[in-house]
Amino acid sequence: MLRENRIRFYRDNGYLVVSDVFPANELAALRRVTGHLVEAARGVAASDGVYDLGPDHGPDIPVVRRIKDPQDQDPVYAAAARSERLLDIVACLLGPAIRFDHGKLNFKPARGGAAVEWHQDWAFYPHTNDDLLAVGIMLEDCTSENGPLLVVPGSRKGPVHDHHHDGVFVGAIDPAAPGADRDRAVALTGKAGACSFHHVRTLHGSAENLSPRPRPLLLFSYAAVDAWPVGERVDLEAFDGRILRGAPTLEPRQDALPLRIPLPRVAAADSIFDDQAAIRGRSFGAKTPAPVAKPETKEETV
Ligand SMILES: O=C(O)CCC(=O)C(=O)O
């Protein structure tokens, strides 16, 4: 369980870091399967249903930007997505009825990981209410040097920004947009085994990894069971099959919230890296230092 002041902090600021969510043995298993999957990428020539590969990828040096749907690639990831310790925290932030939404494992290799432009997840997957969040499981220490997630405190209550460029959804905002306030961003840092939590409307991004230490971040998104996707066709069996706690409902809870539809989309875009390709480098140059974490981002044990 989370203490009441931590829940209030999340509600006000739209993010939280909790330390020691994954114990050493579970972390070791996650690192082991991750190492095997990255190694296996040597034999893969181009991005596919499992790997999003960087432009410099090759058999000598595998450059994996993302493992897609890790929960489907290995039972160790699937168990992490269902961790009761993790779900107890998610329940404090979302409510007791929880549906798993999707997963990904984003890498930033030492001295090279790509930046992720500023965006709100809400722009990618609007729902009938905004009780959705993403958990970032830190497989290695996340420091202000190795490209941690950066979030703008309180932005979950601000505008839903335009994520289009030249009439196409690029999954990134214009960093100069009124109300973006990136200068207030804080870094979500923590020791391996810690988790970050960010609300679906929180404005976030991350800079290049300029450090000698890699930054693998296992991201799982969860929704309240009564949050239904807007503009998407639902396969009811699969949708209800992802419920981890609580009972299915055919009565979505509908809140009066600003929505934007992420269309039209870059042809064949299969990850945020494809979506953002047209505007890459807009916010984060190779020399952009990551902001230093402010005291309120310090880890908090449950
Ligand atoms: O990996 C990162 O630093 C950011 C990832 C992210 O925001 C996303 O994939 O939506």
Overall description:
By secondary structure, the protein is an alpha+beta fold. It has one domain (4-301): Jelly Rolls (Sandwich). It has helices at 4-13, 24-40, 70-73, 75-81, 84-94, 121-124, 236-241, 272-275, and strands at residues 15-19, 51-53, 64-68, 98-106, 116-119, 132-138, 150-151, 164-165, 168-169, 186-187, 195-199, 204-206, 217-224, 243-245, 300-301. The termini are close together. The model is unreliable at 286-290 and 292-298 (pLDDT under 50). Bound molecules: 2-oxoglutaric acid.
Characteristic key phrases:
Jelly Rolls; four-stranded antiparallel sheet; 21% helix; 302 residues; alpha+beta; 8 helices; 15 strands; nine-stranded mixed sheet
Please give a quick description of this structure:
This protein is of the alpha+beta class. 21% of the residues lie in helices and 21% in strands.
